[in-house]
Amino acid sequence: MIIAQISDLHARPHGSPAYGVVDTNPAIARAVDQILKLDPRPDCVLVTGDLSDCGLPEEYGIVRAALERLPMPVYVIPGNHDRRETLRAELRPGHPYLPQSGFLHYAVDDFPVRLIGLDTVIAGEDGGEICAAREAWLAERLAEGQGKPTAIFMHHPPFAVGVDGMDVMPCQVSPGFARLIAAHPEIERVLCGHYHRPIQLRFAGTIGYVVPGTAHQVALDLRPGTENRFVMEPPALALHVWKPGLGLVSHLQPIGDYGPIRDFVLDPAYPGKPQTVPAS
Ligand SMILES: [Fe+2]
Ligand SMILES: [Fe+2]
């Protein structure tokens, strides 16, 4: 099973780039193009929030049209740049797994890896939370999974990443949240967006994973006390590949044209074993 993950599309009304300069809509199209070029194609695509930049119906129309080009199931969750009810109204007809009311969270049991999407949004705030009701809902979904390999996906990371500009707007969780995750070793990953960078760390006995955005990235700034700024570093998508006996392996695939794929032609002075077939 191959799970593709893209994040932080930040769709904008036509002619109105994000932050005045980031042309996010063509970047969404390039991300979709990249997925369509993959061989083999992913079995499904996760979109981990900030689908829109301002939660406007026009922005969701752009997202809807872009994601409709994907022939495989696509699962979306909201981020802080989304508006829960507008997202539901604009996308639910093509995304019937989204609940009719309440939080936009759900579980998907159609694949070898169970997928649980969490809604971390606090309306009107940058940061997110898993409140008591959402934590209880997650506990029920995990219990009904009966140990099946599981990937949780959510917009706001529920862990600190050691970058001050990012850690001021995390996902607030209770101490019980980490205990709940740790009590379910079948959770292969907690997949997130929001920070617009590739980040991995150990979290509650599993792996916390943050994927870059499809357009702008947050500039890496490890100095204490600095605020987030953005930079046009290469966007990327993640491919989480599940193989029985191996588990879930996460690959990061830059989005864009980086030239042809070439064979390794070894120099005669190469110290390894001579081979007729070029090796990496
Ligand atoms: Fe974002
Ligand atoms: Fe965000």
From TrEMBL:
Keywords carried by this UniProt record: Hydrolase, Iron, Metal-binding
InterPro entries with a match to the protein in the record: Calcineurin-like_PHP, CNP_phosphodiesterase-III, GpdQ/CpdA-like, GpdQ_beta-strand, GpdQ_catalytic, Metallo-depent_PP-like
Domain of life: Bacteria
Residue intervals of the Calcineurin-like phosphoesterase domain: 2-198
Pfam families tied to this protein: Metallophos
Keyword Metal-binding: yes
Coiled coil: none
Protein name (Swiss-Prot/TrEMBL): Phosphodiesterase
CDD domains according to UniProt: MPP_GpdQ (cd07402)
Family in the record: Belongs to the cyclic nucleotide phosphodiesterase class-III family.
